[in-house]
Amino acid sequence: MRKIEIYDTTLRDGAQSEDVSFSVEDKLRILAKLDEFGIHYIEGGWPGANPRDAEFFKQALKFKMKNARLAAFGATHRASLTVSKDPSIKAILAAKTPVVTIFGKTWDFHVREALRVSLQRNLDLIYDTVSYLKKKAPQVFFDAEHFFDGYRANPEYALKALEAAASAGADCLVLCDTNGGVLPGDVGKIVREVVERFQTPVGMHAHNDSECAVANSITAVENGASQVQGTINGLGERCGNANLISVVPALQLKLKHSCITDDNLKKLKDVSRYITEISNLRHFKRQPFVGDSAFAHKAGIHVSAVLRHPETYEHIRPDLVGNYQRVLVSDLSGKGNIVRKISDFKLDIDPDSPKVLEIVKDLKQLENQGFQFEGAEASLELLIKKSFGLYRKLFDLIGFRVIVEKRKEGEEPLSEATIMIRTPQGIEHTAADGNGPVNALDKALRKALEKFYPQLKDVSLLDYKVRVLTAGKGTDTNVRVLVESGDGKHKWGTVGVSANIIEASWQALVDSIEYKLLRG
């Protein structure tokens, strides 16, 4: 058994996925989730590349990491500047991360055509950058860009590029299949040669353009690599990166290497779905290990066998990765997930209570309507509390009205919300305008409640996402709204579903307020 370091680049490479755009708050939530999961290194982005990454690193400095080390990413210094005067290098050091990952050219074709410098000058850029950063950062990793293409074209030069980084003090030589076109057989041969040649640890960074990123990552480890870079759910540019949700259990359960703790491995499905929700993407039912269909068995000849001996038709025990077996006709699963959430929420509830099964049934009905509670843990906690009588309703809606008015072409529409609620202290009727109908409704609700519950003044809406649930119906379809709120100390997510986007938003906003009031 070997320890394999897991390096996550969801916040950078993953953010380059089509249809994915992380806010700073999104990135901070993902950072916290991956740290809790036990990832060894989390790449936050490229400091100085854009205002969002700059703000993220500023905020991340305040975050106390429990397991992971934060990495800043960048390139070798510009050929026209000395390393100490390159603004991008200065920005990387200003991020004050314990790990810096620098990529450099290892394919002679790229050196000549992209950098347009001599082959020797490129080796100097690699050496100068790594050696300079190594004096200022505890760990420096060298990402050998296009290494496999470079090795096939000019192996002598590709290895010289690695030698430049190694002699400069790089802590890991990461071999990148940047175009995603190499096959496992070639990966095995090349990685083995590099491992035998260098004393410096070797890593693997694979892209998935040939559907081989996971296989290439596993093959690299089998041939001596000790670090694997990838993203959660395989997010990434073009066809994505190596999917850590598949790589980690394959290495740990099948090759018996140590990646994360067994307890954390049981959070695999939760982590996958959490990132999917934050990414505002659809869950992939047939995703290996964590998909809803990964351990689903439809009525047929093998069902009785799998119920007696799951290993007859399952390659691992689903609970090892936080999933569960499903028999689609009778659907016997789900209780274990609720029991685990009850424990996570620290609720004083008997896990053997018959009401637990009632919650499972209710959840399945809600999920059929479009609700998803990954990324909306506060709504799930409220649902459980309501089922067990641990919920005290603090206000009732009498009614609300939202008006959106556009008075002139070229001007922004005006939004106003009027709301009437009943509290233990009496009826409150207020109105507020806002930046859009949902913001106006949120302001009106707070305005009505803050005089009775002043702690709501600390609450702010941090993020708001809408997803269309049924394709093909255009605007006539259900939508799911995911809201993230915070009070400066804690953050929580809530969810609402309706054919009316305002109603779905109202559900999520009410859950957010009630969660705060019940927490105190």
Write a short abstract of this structure.
The chain is of the alpha/beta class. The chain has helices at residues 24-37, 51-60, 87-94, 108-115, 119-134, 147-153, 155-167, 184-197, 213-222, 244-254, 262-265, 268-278, 303-308, 335-344, 354-369, 377-387, 437-449, 501-519; strands spanning 5-8, 41-45, 69-75, 99-105, 139-145, 172-177, 202-206, 227-230, 296-297, 326-327, 396-405, 414-423, 426-434, 460-468, 479-486, 491-498. It is 39% helix and 20% strand.
Write the layout of secondary structure elements.
Layout: E1 5-8, H1 24-37, E2 41-45, H2 51-60, E3 69-75, H3 87-94, E4 99-105, H4 108-115, H5 119-134, E5 139-145, H6 147-153, H7 155-167, E6 172-177, H8 184-197, E7 202-206, H9 213-222, E8 227-230, H10 244-254, H11 262-265, H12 268-278, E9 296-297, H13 303-308, E10 326-327, H14 335-344, H15 354-369, H16 377-387, E11 396-405, E12 414-423, E13 426-434, H17 437-449, E14 460-468, E15 479-486, E16 491-498, H18 501-519
Parallel strand pairs: 1-2, 1-8, 2-3, 3-4, 4-5, 5-6, 6-7, 7-8, 9-10
Antiparallel strand pairs: 11-12, 12-13, 14-15, 15-16
